[in-house]
Amino acid sequence: MRLVVMAAVLVLAGAWPGPGAWPGPVCDFGCRPENVSLTVESCGRAEQVLTTVCEGRCYQEDPVYIGPDYWPRQTICSGDWYYEVKHIKGCPVAVSYPVARSCMCAPCETTNTYCGRFPGDLPS
Q1: 29-107 architecture in CATH?
Q2: Could you tell me which residue ranges the Glycoprotein hormone subunit beta domain spans (predicted)?
Q3: Relative to the CA of 81, which of 11, 18, 59, 104 has its CA 20 to 30 Å away?
């Protein structure tokens, strides 16, 4: 009975994905652009710039059993990036910094990201 009540509460709260949507996020944490302040430096001078980075959580599957023939594909919050140029007053050398155009949950790329399981313990 408690399970039925909890499922009804999750459906009413919008945290249950609904029929036909499984597997999927139980709670939509989202992967979204976020404005951050970044320090750039050139010619020994530093300035703050406002840029956009990708931030958020993506659905992760952590099954009870992981065999040699089954390893769930993990996703990370990633984005489409471009670089802007900043000229610091009194310095002839420009500085470039990354800006996220858009963000999405994408498959983890082992070429530039650690895609393995977290080696430590997480508090419950």
Answers
A1: Ribbon (2.10)
A2: 30-117
A3: 59
**d(C-alpha 52, C-alpha 106), whole Å:** 18
Mean pLDDT of 93-104: 92
pLDDT for 59-71, tens place per residue? 776 666 666 666 6
Q: Please say whether the beta carbons of 86 and 95 come within 8 A.
A: yes
Of residues 56 and 2, which shows the higher confidence score? 56
The residue whose two tokens read 């040699």 is 68
CB atoms within 10 A of CB 78: 20
Which sign, positive or negative, has the C-alpha torsion 109, 38, 53, 79?
negative
First CA to last CA distance, the chain? 25
Per the CB < 8 A criterion, the answer to whether 29 and 60 are in contact is no
Is-contact 81 96, C-beta < 8 A? no
